[in-house]
Design a protein that fits this description.
The structure holds two protein chains of two kinds. By secondary structure, chain A is of the alpha+beta class. In chain A, about 45% of the residues lie in helices and about 35% in strands. In chain A, helix 4 packs parallel to helix 6. Chain A is elongated, with a radius of gyration of 38 Å. Chain B has two domains: about 80 residues, Rna Polymerase Sigma Factor, Chain: A (Orthogonal Bundle); about 90 residues, Arc Repressor Mutant, subunit A, CATH 1.10.10.10. The chains are: A alpha+beta, B mainly alpha. Chains A and B meet through helix 1, helix 2 and strand 6 of A and helix 1, helix 2, helix 3, helix 6 and helix 7 of B. Chain A: It comes from Algoriphagus zhangzhouensis. Chain A: Keywords: Membrane, Transmembrane, Transmembrane helix.
């Protein structure tokens, strides 16, 4: 009986207090709206790292633009120094220039053989200078090739030149004899001279080529070590079809070549990863939420191996594989539970700072393309995919990430652009 | 953008009092209440899809605010003693026989603020916001028994504050 009375008293008290609470009339505050308005204004600006990210993005863009400008500025000088054969624009590949040179050499050889053919009757008519000039031409062509060629085809071309020159020099006296020109000492000298030059030159050429080849090996693409600044849009999700709001990654990297085509790379990257996931994909939060929205600030320290299967003179591609350590700087989660008693849903917020670190807990896969921009700079794009080995963060979730690194690489020892 | 801002202001003006009355009951300072209220409005303004227009707005908004209040409460709970006593007894005119009937919202808030945080949370959730003990236990991470016990003590303390003389006499009789 006393319990019922007590219950009635409780109900009465609750009812009155509820009425008082519901009847609240709090005067509107313009000052509060002002604060709300400024918060809304602030929120309408780009998310993520805010001004810092925008500043870094701008700096990165400016750096890339500057590098391209420098490249364009430097390119004509390089081409001028190397060849007079064809006029090229800007960043045309050196391979294509080599092709041009090779075809030019072929033409010269044809021209040479023609001139030799022609030179015989000329000489037989007593015009010995023409033969000499033809041979001189061989030497000139050889010298030209010698300057900038380093491939096998070119060597063959030069050897052929030599043979042709020698053959030619044999022929000339013969024709002279045949035609009975007896006293041409000066002619003989003139004939001999090119032979001496032609015989001497190929050796020098070979040596030069060897030197070039060795130089090539030593300074293949860049130095053994490089530093990079990299920036990437980053998409994170628990399942591959659940990538939502974009995050970002920004940081510096270092790379060391243990072999010409094998390198070890590392770095420190700050990453902001927002993500959301639906029912069934979060484990480890205790009570299983039906959906989760998360925002994580992560320090990503990768250790990757890179293999460069394709390497040209100005560009190369690589495949990267390795492990990352995630240091979770801060984690914020909104966990939503549906069908929660009388209410439809309940949202729980969770904030964790500096609690979860995963050393070598994330596998990295990437492919990349690098192109020279200057003597010490190159640009690199690298699509990547990261997958945790054991789950990350407070909820031990399998937070996968993908993105595209765009970066500038700096080679302190310099890159050889030919 | 401008039109959007005006619509937002209209909504803010309409639900300011309602939202603030909820937040003030859970928080200890007006600034904290305002922050939570603004957090709640931000949920609506930054992601309107979270609200289902087929459902009534007020219960949804209440839920959003209460969730945030509870999160804030949990943060504060780490820093303060759960059994923190009543620090300030509001100056209610207890000589008036009908003190409860004439209670104003401001006085109610003052009374609630005088409750220890754990009692205050359960009282707010159960009595004023209509959650069940089961729900409260999950939200606060306590047992159902603790939730019931805290509610009972909260009521007792409120009665004590509302009518100290009557309560004194009752205690003396026991």
């Amino acid at each position: 009986m006393s319990e019922r009375l007590s219950d009635n008293r409780d109900e009465e008290l609750d009812r009155i207090l509820r009425e008082v609470s519901d009847s609240a009339d709090i005067p509107f505050s313009e000052e509060d709206w002002g604060e709300m308005k400024s918060r809304l204004d602030l929120d309408s600006r780009p998310a993520g790292l805010g001004w810092f990210a925008m500043g870094m993005a701008w700096l990165g863009s400016m750096g890339i633009a500057l590098s391209i400008a420098l490249l364009i500025w430097n390119s004509p000088k390089e081409i001028k120094g190397n060849t007079d054969i064809s006029s090229t624009n800007g960043i045309e590949s050196i391979e294509s220039k080599n092709l041009n040179r090779e075809s030019q050499i072929d033409e010269n050889l044809e021209l040479l053989s023609d001139s030799i053919k022609v030179s015989i009757p000329q000489q037989s008519l007593g015009f010995s200078e023409s033969a000499t000039s033809a041979e001189k031409m061989v030497v000139i062509v050889s010298e030209k090739e010698n300057e900038y060629e380093s491939n096998a085809e070119t060597k063959i071309g030069i050897t052929e030149n030599k043979e042709v020159t020698q053959a030619n020099s044999d022929e000339i006296p013969k024709s002279q004899n045949e035609l009975g020109f007896s006293s041409e000492e000066s002619d003989e000298k003139e004939i001999e001279e090119p032979i001496v030059v032609a015989e001497a030159e190929p050796d020098t050429v070979e040596e030069d080529f060897d030197q070039e080849k060795n130089k090539d090996k030593k300074e293949r693409f860049g130095g053994k070590f490089n530093l990079s600044f990299q920036l990437a849009p980053d998409l994170s999700g628990v399942k591959l079809d659940q990538f939502g709001k974009a995050g970002n990654m920004i940081g510096i990297g270092a790379e060391y070549f243990v072999k010409p085509r094998l390198s070890i790379s590392s770095g420190v990257f700050y990453s902001y990863k927002p993500y959301s996931a639906n029912e069934g994909y979060m484990i480890g939060y205790g009570k299983q939420p039906n959906s989760v929205f998360g925002e994580c600030d992560i320090l990503d320290i990768p250790l990757n191996l890179r293999i460069y299967p394709f390497e040209g003179k100005v560009q190369r591609a690589f495949v990267g594989l390795g492990l990352s350590s995630y240091l979770m700087l801060s984690e914020y989660y909104e966990l939503e539970y549906y069908g929660y008693g009388a209410n439809d849903s309940y949202t729980q917020e969770l904030e964790v700072k500096g609690k979860n670190n995963h050393f070598f807990g994330v596998a990295n896969f990437s492919i990349g393309y690098e192109r020279k921009l200057g003597k010490t700079l190159s640009i690199q794009v690298e699509p990547y995919f990261k997958v945790p080995l054991n789950g990350v963060g407070e909820g031990d979730i399998s937070l996968k990430s993908t993105g595209l690194f765009v970066g500038l690489k700096f080679y302190p020892s310099g890159i050889n652009i030919r | 953008m401008e039109k959007n801002r005006k619509d937002q202001e209209v909504l803010y003006r309409i639900y300011y009092s309602y939202g603030m009355s909820i937040c003030l009951r859970y928080t200890t300072t007006r600034d904290e209440a305002k922050e939570i209220l603004h957090d709640g409005f931000m949920v609506l303004f930054s992601d309107p899809k979270k609200f289902d227009p087929k459902q009534p707005f007020k219960p949804w908004f209440r839920k959003v605010l209460v969730n945030r209040c509870i999160n804030s409460f949990k943060k504060h709970l780490r820093n303060i003693s759960e059994e923190g006593g009543v620090e300030l007894i509001p100056d209610l005119r207890d000589d008036q026989p009908n003190a409860l009937e004439n209670l104003q919202f401001e006085e109610l808030v003052m009374l609630i603020h005088c409750l220890p945080p754990a009692y205050r949370a359960v009282f707010n959730l159960y009595v004023l916001d209509g959650f069940s003990h089961e729900e409260i236990s999950k939200m606060l991470g306590i047992s159902i028994g603790t939730s019931k016990s805290n509610l009972s003590r909260a009521r007792e303390k409120l009665r004590e504050m509302l009518n100290p003389k009557i309560h004194e006499r009752k205690t003396l009789r026991q």
